[in-house]
Amino acid sequence: MPLVKQIYLAGGCFWGTEKYLALIPGVLRTEVGYANGLTVNPSYEDVCYRDTGHAETVKVEYDPAALELSRLLSFFYRVIDPTSVNRQGADRGVQYRTGIYYVDEADLPAVRRSLEELQKRYGKSLALECEALKNYYSAEEDHQKYLDKNPGGYCHIGPAAFAALRPPAVAG
Question: Disulfide check for 39: which of 52, 86, 94, 97 has CB 3.0–4.6 Å away?
Fold first, then answer.
């Protein structure tokens, strides 16, 4: 059985971010939820309309032998605007901020190095939070694997990003 590590990634609307991250080889499991907010066990409506301070976040469980954290983060950076404050795509609000929330202090040096490399590609400061995970609450079941259940659902991530992670079709 592989070693399993966790990292929590906030990349705007969690529907598309979850689907994208789940496609990365080495990612074992994803779940959407609400992180680093001010209230206990918020609902989707609370997060959207009641100033709970939570970020829509994807809990990512991955095999570090198959996927280094720095590589996982490099995939994540491809589908976010790390300089945008409280906004990704058409979504606006504190719940759509970007963030990396770690649970293992040993991951912090790799996260910081990846952010330093990312900063070199931008002419303005990053707005990406980097913090220890303070709290996390699973989102309601209807938000889990949302785009699998609702293939035509809204997503701020373009189709090309998903296509780049899908294995090529086998000719038959």
Answer: 52
Q: Which amino acid is at 101?
A: Y
Residue 13 annotated in active site = yes
The amino acid that residue 149 corresponds to is K
Give per-residue pLDDT as tens, 54-68: 999 999 999 999 999
CA–CA dist 3, 63 (Å, integer): 6
**Are 148 and 141 in contact, with CB atoms under 8 Å apart?**
no
Place of tokens 């996927």: 67
13, 48, 130, 155: the catalytic one is 13
- Looking at domain 5-165, its CATH architecture is 2-Layer Sandwich (3.30)
* Centroid of chain to Cα 58: 5
